[in-house]
Specification:
The chain has a domain of about 220 residues: NAD(P)-binding Rossmann-like Domain (Rossmann fold, 3-Layer(aba) Sandwich). Helix content is about 40%, strand content about 15%. The chain has ten helices and 13 strands. Helix 1 crosses helix 7, helix 6 packs across helix 8 and helix 8 packs across helix 10. The two termini are about 40 Å apart.
């Protein structure tokens, strides 16, 4: 049935959206609606309404977002909350108005409280204070998933949300300051090896624990959720495994071939001490991730090198 539907993938040029498109195309879905930011400004309510009115998608996978690491979230909180909140409200309401059958909104596990019990279950949402360094982004994403939940409850539409953990893989953003931790480490350690540096310092103490999911695993999980007749309102999409930032840096160093020393810089912020998602709700629907961190790092680094060679490396 899904093969015959018209699917709009919002944010298809980003890492997540591109992975979703690859997955859908490989599964035989040909009727995809894809609009770049230049073609459709999701922060413009009039343009969004016109798009849904004219194109009438059956399904929406909402992977559009303004994203970044600790530095970017801390530096530009007004942009993070405004752009993400406006895009979500415009798209969700227009989808309802124009008869979209299913809307899958992608949030993030960073929406959970800073000190939520570990591993973090979906029931932890809004139980205590958020992590200050990404509060603006988290608030916008919480609003989006709550909109989906309330529209589903009030109007009976199949609007639901997936909450990915930290992602990496082909098409990642490798900006030296604004990227997430894993792509930042890949770039820094690659460049350190190329310039024969003897030492690389990472932000913070290196003790925070993080969970990582390859973006192709995420795309597989999204495809699975789209095929469920009665998906959960919100569900974590993660690997269920965690690693310290210091050990992650060492694993990346091994992957890229950096032989030097990894040190820590405790004067820099750590962010949330631990963030492991409970993926039992997702497993109960019949799906689990398949790509190990070791294999995923090799794949991500190979993509990084290819993107450099083809001048397609994202660094914004």
């Amino acid at each position: 049935m899904l093969n015959d539907t018209k699917i709009y993938v919002a944010g298809h040029r980003g890492m997540v959206g591109a992975a979703v498109v690859r997955r859908l195309q490989n599964a035989g879905h040909e009727n995809l609606l894809l609009k770049s930011r230049d073609e459709l400004d999701l922060t413009n309510q009039h343009d969004v309404n016109s798009f849904f009115s004219q194109n009438k998608p059956d399904v929406v996978v909402f992977a559009a977002a303004k994203v970044g690491g600790i530095h970017a979230n801390n530096t530009y909180p007004a942009e993070f909350i405004y752009q993400n909140l406006t895009m979500a409200t415009n798209a969700i309401h227009a989808a309802y108005q124009h008869g979209v059958q299913r809307f899958l909104f992608l949030g993030s596990t960073c929406i959970y409280p800073r000190l939520a019990p570990q591993p973090i279950s979906e029931d932890s949402l809004l139980t205590s204070e958020l992590e200050p360094t990404n509060e603006a982004y988290a608030l916008a994403k919480i609003a989006g998933l709550k909109l989906c939940q309330f529209y589903r409850r009030q109007y009976g539409v199949l609007f639901h949300s997936g909450l990915p953990t930290n992602l990496y893989g082909p098409g990642d953003n490798y900006h030296p300051e604004n990227s997430h931790v894993l792509p930042a480490l890949i770039r820094r350690l690659h460049e350190a090896r190329e310039s024969s540096q003897k030492e690389v310092a990472i932000w913070g103490t290196g003790t925070p624990l993080r969970e990582f999911l390859h973006v192709d695993d995420l795309a597989a999980g999204i495809h699975h959720l789209l095929k469920l007749a009665d998906p959960p309102d919100l569900v974590n999409i993660g690997s269920g495994q965690e690693i310290s930032i210091l050990n992650l840096a060492k694993a990346v160093a091994e992957t890229v071939g950096f032989p030097g020393q990894i040190t820590t810089d405790p004067s820099r912020p750590d962010g949330t001490p631990r963030k492991l998602s409970d993926i039992n709700r997702l497993r109960a629907t019949g799906w689990a991730p398949k790509i190990s961190l070791s294999d995923g790092l090799k794949s991500a680094y190979a993509s990084f090198l290819q993107e450099i060679d083809t001048a397609s490396l994202r660094s914004v």
